[in-house]
Structures are given as structure tokens and as C-alpha cells.
């Protein structure tokens, strides 16, 4: 029993969680280092992992709205910041290997305004303030503005989806990743809207009359 408790404690530790998040990057970098993978072939997996971690981080709030505060939703909530930073890290890898693949500044600038390209740059631009402020000090300093800033993730998600759809010929991969996010966010909005309407109805209802005979 003690051994199981110790194992769970290790698995639940943030350093181990960060190690798990980094494993795909380690495997990809090893393949690139030994020459099994070229820079161009690094673009799709790094971008995909970035989108995956972003999506997982974004579905945590809908899951809490739907299922309430449970052990597993609280576990996910405590790791949401790590997932968001990991999404940014893989996006940075994606950008680095894009620059390596393009080799020179001129071709990068030449295709900058192509829809499939500028959407990726714009998503990255929104990712930067999210990553920079993913710490307790920023939360204390920004206070209520911190939550407003974090809403940039919705714009980043839409731009990431557009980038994915425009860069690749098929839509299946992007939709498989993003439709669950869209459905959960929609369900969250419906639940929140229903709760607000319920509270409004309660507030508008006249008090029960008391009659005596």
C-alpha cells in the first residue's frame, strides 16, 4: 500500500508531468540530431503537439462546468498552466524548424502574407503574452486583467485551426482535434446560459404570499 502511494505521489508530481510532456520533443529532436528526420518533417509533428496541448488545456474549463469539481477535474486544473506552456514550447519548436527549413529570410518574407502562413504567425503572436504571464507573479500583478488576457487563447485556437486547414490538403486531422473542443465549449456556454436564466427567473419571481383564514 505504501509503495502504491509513493508511486502515485511520483506520478502526480509536476516534474514528472513535465517530463512526460517533453518526451515527444525529445524523441523528435533525437531523430533530427541523428539525421533520421529533416527540418521539413519536423513541422507537422511539432505543430500538431502544440495544438493538442493547447486543446487539452482549453477543454478543462468546459469539463469542470459539465462535471463539477471532482478529483480528476481538479487534477487537470492544477496542470493546465503546464499544458499551456508546453503548447507554446512546441509552437516555438515548430517556428524554429520552419525557419531552418526556409534557410533564408527572403523566402520567409515572400510567403508571409499567404493565408496559411500569416495565420500561423498571428497565432504565435497571441501565444507569446499567454506564455509570458503563465506564472503566479503575473496573476498577482494583473489581477482581473489576467483572466482577460488569457482569453487570447480563443483567438490563438481559431488562428491555429485556420493555419492547419490552409497548410494541409485534408481537413480530417484538424477537425478530429478541434471538433471535440468546439462541442465542449458550446455545451459549456449552454450550461452557463441556462444557469443564468434560472437565476434570473428566480430573482424575478414574486414572493410567495401568505394567507390566513
From TrEMBL:
Keywords: Iron, Membrane, Transmembrane, Transmembrane helix, Transport. Its main location: membrane. The keyword Transmembrane helix applies. This is Ferric reductase-like transmembrane domain-containing protein. The chain crosses the membrane at residues 7-29, 49-69, 81-100, 112-132, 152-168, 174-193. The keyword Disulfide bond does not apply. InterPro entries: Fe3_Rdtase_TM_dom (IPR013130), MsrQ-like (IPR022837).
Amino acid at each position: 500500500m505504501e509503495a502504491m502511494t509513493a508511486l502515485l505521489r511520483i506520478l502526480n508530481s509536476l516534474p514528472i508531468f513535465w517530463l512526460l510532456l517533453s518526451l515527444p520533443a525529445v524523441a523528435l529532436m533525437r531523430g533530427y540530431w541523428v539525421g533520421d528526420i529533416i527540418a521539413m518533417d519536423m513541422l507537422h509533428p511539432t505543430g500538431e503537439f502544440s495544438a493538442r496541448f493547447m486543446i487539452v488545456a482549453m477543454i478543462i474549463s468546459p469539463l469542470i462546468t459539465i462535471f463539477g469539481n471532482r478529483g480528476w477535474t481538479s487534477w487537470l486544473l492544477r496542470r493546465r498552466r503546464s499544458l499551456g506552456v508546453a503548447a507554446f514550447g512546441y509552437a516555438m519548436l515548430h517556428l524554429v524548424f520552419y525557419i531552418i527549413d526556409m534557410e533564408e529570410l527572403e523566402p520567409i518574407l515572400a510567403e508571409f502574407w499567404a493565408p496559411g502562413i500569416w495565420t500561423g504567425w498571428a497565432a504565435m503572436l497571441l501565444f507569446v503574452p499567454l506564455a509570458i504571464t503563465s506564472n503566479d507573479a503575473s496573476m498577482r500583478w494583473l489581477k482581473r486583467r489576467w483572466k482577460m488576457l488569457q482569453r487570447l487563447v480563443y483567438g490563438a485556437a481559431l488562428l491555429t485551426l485556420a493555419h492547419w486547414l490552409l497548410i494541409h490538403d485534408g481537413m480530417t486531422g484538424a477537425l478530429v482535434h478541434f471538433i471535440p473542443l468546439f462541442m465542449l465549449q458550446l455545451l459549456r456556454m449552454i450550461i452557463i446560459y441556462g444557469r443564468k436564466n434560472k437565476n434570473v427567473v428566480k430573482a424575478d419571481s414574486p414572493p410567495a404570499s401568505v394567507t390566513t383564514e
